[in-house]
Amino acid sequence: MNRSRWYAIRTAPGYQRMAAIDERLPENRRMESIIERNCRKDGFDIFMPSFYTELRHHRTKQILQKRFPFLVGYAFVNLPRLNFEELRRVDGVVCFLRGANYGPIEFPDVTIEALYFAEHERRQAFLYEHHCRKENERHEQIQHLRGQLRKILPKGRKARVSMVDQAERAIDSLSPQIKERVQKIISELNALTGDAEVENLRQAV
Question: Based on the number of CB atoms within 10 Å of its own CB, is 174 exposed (0-12), middle (13-18) or buried (19 or more)?
Fold first, then answer.
C-alpha cells in the first residue's frame, strides 16, 4: 500500500469558494470548494482545512451556512505516486509550495492529522452553536404559537389542562374560519415539538 505523501498547493484566486451545489454528490461533498471538486474529479485526494459559519443574507435575511479555508490560497494534496505534472494540469492549481533551493515541500502525516483535528474541533463547535440557535428559534416559535392560541380560545383555562387539549376540545364550537386557524396552529406546534415531545408540549402549554 502506498504511504501518504502530502504537498501544499497554491490555489488560483476564487477557487476556494464553495462550488455550485450538485445533488448527485454524497452529503459530505455538498459544501466542497471548486478546487476540491476539480481535484477529486481528476482522482486526487485533497484536504483544504476549513471552518464553517452562519451568515444572514443582507436582502432575504435568510441564515446561510458558509465554509471558509483556514489557509487562504493553499490546500494539501496527497501524491503517493509523486505525479506532480498531472496535478499541475488540474484547473485551479497554480504551483506547489517549495522550500529554498528545493522542490515541493512534503508535509508529515502528523502535521496533516493536527490540521484534521483542529478542523474537527471547529466543526463540532459550529454544530453545537447551530443546534443552540435552532433550539432557541424553535422555542420562540412555540411561544409565539401558544400566544396565538391564548388570544383565540376562551379565557379561564384550568392550570392542569394544556392549551392544546383545550383547543381540541373547543374546536367544534368555533367558526369554520377560526377552526381552520386553530387546526393550523396545533399542527405547527406538533411539528415543532416532534412526535416524541408532543406529550411534553401538552404538559407545558
Answer: middle
